[in-house]
Amino acid sequence: MDVAVLGATGDVGRQICTQLVERRILPTTSRLQLVGRPGGASGRAVHGLRADLIDAYDEHAPLLDVALDPTEVVADVVVVAAGMTAPATSGVPMSRAALADKNVGVFTAYAEALARHGSGQEVVVVVSNPVELGVAIMASALGRQRVIGMGAWLDTLRFRREIAVSLGVRRHRVGGFVGGQHGEDLVPLWSTVRISGLDVDERRRAVDRLRGGRSLDGFAAEVASAKEQLAATSDMGQAFALIDSWPPDLRVVARPWMTHQSGAKTAAGTASATIDLVDTILDGRDIVVAGQVALAGEVLDRTGVLGVPVVVGQKGWTRVLLDQPAPDEARRLAAVAERIDAANAPWLRGAA
Ligand SMILES: NC(=O)c1ccc[n+]([C@@H]2O[C@H](COP(=O)([O-])OP(=O)(O)OC[C@H]3O[C@@H](n4cnc5c(N)ncnc54)[C@H](O)[C@@H]3O)[C@@H](O)[C@H]2O)c1
Q1: Residue 310 C-alpha to ligand 1 middle, in angstroms?
Q2: Mutation test of ligand 1: which of 127, 159, 257 has the most ligand atoms closer than 8 Å to its C-beta?
Q3: What is this model's ipTM?
Q4: 125 C-alpha vs ligand 1 centroid, how far in Å?
Q5: What residues does ligand 1 touch, defined as CB less than 6 Å away?
Q6: Ligand 1, atom 34: nearest CA belongs to which residue?
Q7: Fewer beta carbons below 10 Å: N end or C end of the chain?
């Protein structure tokens, strides 16, 4: 199967391409399409990236080609990593609306081109932010089940790792999902957490200990306070040590936020989670992941985009697996869904 990466020469796109090749996710008979923009720096650099990848990995690299126009994108899985990101500098916030304003044109151009020139089968993985807006635009052009935003999967892998660190076990022993909106408005779904080797009572005790008597009703205030404390800490080492002292779900929000503020960005982790999702789609077996998808009433009677656990396979996602969220999860999911809808509305009206 073939993969196309839009925004291949960006920080995230380049990591995705490199990891796809280095980790031998694609056989040598498959094609990896590196997609840039005509003219300008990325249109030139995408040819250079192709040459560099061949230089490094010729023996096991898939077929590498370059596309510079949305109409030329051809693949079974299309990864959307093109578009602007918030500045990776402390004290330079960029609102979701400002980012949406920058990236709505990118989402729309590729959605229209894929709808018109695509195979009608490609699965689209949205990495670019706001990921919920990208999913909404792509899903309305291509059909909702072929489009999945990877922010919730990245948040899920972080959640599992933070829980594993707190319990002193390896990450692969921890299951559980994060839903909601990617970033500060994520929803840690504690009711879905499973820890291999622990029975139900042991798990309940472990989860209660990790949560420390908190519920998600106070989570937004905790996140706001965490950001304030981190913004007031000029020493990066101290900031990350402070994060280490917090509970796992708060660390899931705070650590990547601080990483981005440090100037390092989160390109490697984002790419790794994207590869994981792409590999799962290519694998062909139905596997449960978390992703931002366009709902039609499957959870809390919601329509609109929301991060939830879903079954994915080669045709996209098929089912939502969140029958009974805990009451505090349901309340936060509903509130976050409202915020996503409100944030997306002006752009979706504009696109109609
Ligand atoms: N979902 C996540 O978990 C997550 C994490 C980190 C970053 N991101 C997002 O990924 C996106 C890329 O981030 P980055 O750090 O790589 O940014 P970057 O600025 O380094 O790269 C963006 C790339 O997109 C390209 N691009 C812009 N418009 C294009 C178009 N119309 N066609 C083809 N290419 C185009 C640019 O030339 C550039 O190469 C951002 O939207 C960012 O917010 C998402």
Answers
A1: 25
A2: 127
A3: 0.95
A4: 13
A5: 6-7, 9-13, 35-37, 42, 81-85, 103, 106, 109, 127-129, 131, 150-151, 154, 182, 265-267, 270
A6: 7
A7: C
Give the Cβ contact number of residue 199 at 10 Å: 8
Distance 12 CA to ligand 1 centre (A): 6
pLDDT tens-place string over residues 219-268 = 999 999 999 999 999 899 999 999 999 999 999 999 999 998 888 888 99
Q: How far is 7 from 83, CA to CA, in rounded Å? A: 7
pTM given for the model:
0.95
Residue 301, token pair as written in the block: 């009677």
Please tell me the distance between residue 281's alpha carbon and the centre of ligand 1 in angstroms. Answer: 22
CB 35, CB 5: distance < 8 Å: yes
Distance (Å, rounded) from C-alpha 282 to C-alpha 313? 7
Question: In order of start, what are the domains of the chain with their CATH numbers?
Answer: 3-150 (3.40.50.720), 151-352 (3.90.110.10)
d(CA 301, CA 290): 18
Q: What is the pLDDT of residues 280-303, one digit of tens each?
A: 999 888 999 999 999 999 999 999
